[in-house]
Amino acid sequence: MNLTNLFKIALKALGNNRFRCFLTMLGIIIGVAAVITMLAVGQGSKRSIQAQISEMGSNMIMIHPGGERRGGVRLSSEDMESLKTEDLEDIRSQTVFVTYVSPVVNSSGQAVYGANNTPTTIYGVNRDYLEIRRYRVENGDLFSDRDIQTAAKVCLVGKSVADELFPDGQNPIGKVIRFGTIPMRVIGVLESKGYNSMGMDQDDLIIAPYTTVQKRILAITHLQEIVCSALAEEYTDRAIDEITDVIRVNHRLKDTDEDDFSIRSQQELSSMMTSTTDMMTVLLAAVAGISLLVGGIGIMNIMYVSVTERTREIGLRMSIGAKGRDIMAQFLIESILISVTGGIIGVVLGVGAALLVNILASYPVYVQSWSVLLSFAVCTVTGVFFGWYPARKAARLDPIDAIRYE
User: Are residues 121 and 245 in the same domain?
Assistant: First the structure.
């Protein structure tokens, strides 16, 4: 019996029980659609987080003072004054894999203009900071090196601060605002960056020369933080090694001494968050995959029922010359047709569901082609695997006993 005739017989048998066939497909349909949707949501979240971290500077390196032990008590890094301007200059001049370097000193307080005010944070930095954190000046200009040298009372404001202090839409450029008791002239407005992956408003800030914040607001000479950027994300580890060597030499630390500073990179944050989203994606896909298993069991169950119902038909076919492999092929084809058709419908519904999640819930999704192919391949294998045993049972029936079956 040729393959074409086997397909015709299988299609006719399935057509005689359309509703039962659809119910059998339902498990496969739901399973495939769920797997594709869950993977799309997981990958969408991962790509969204990576994009937001990239906007913050995926090759950014942060250096903080390290906690020191005094009298058996480890002090907070905020109490330490181990980072100096000399460290900043040496990192800039003695490293190869570092492109931009900026000091950071900050203070939280109230920004005031006329009758309007808003709580915010002022960051004292140099010109490199905007390159490191990927900020852009939308209106106005960035402060100059001369402003840094003279600790000029000038600043740039984020979009959120500008909207709060100037709600009537007037241009902030040239206006004098007050941070605490210090008057500062606005020379620029930063381009909006929105919220980051941790839910923090990246536009709620004021940027000023670091010397201004050091001398006029905090009255300190040390640095609270140094931020750098590596040549590229893949050079981050080499840049960290260079920075470590420079600061240890500057701080006269012996080989046996612990670092009195700590270094973190955006790469660590990215790896941690993507590994978390990967784990959640696998978990979601595994839960959705259970539906595929249930669908496969449903196929096996229905094929068993089909073999039992058509025992006499099988006996008649075998008595007129059909071989066991023909009978087995017939039932395998039926099983595969059920699973593949269910898989196709499941793929369409899964992609459609992912797009609906994106449109209705505004949640980032990303349908990967491999997830569609994998789901389709799994449902095909499911049809073969769960259809093989009932087909094998049908092929081993004794023709005489099958004809006599009631």
Answer: yes
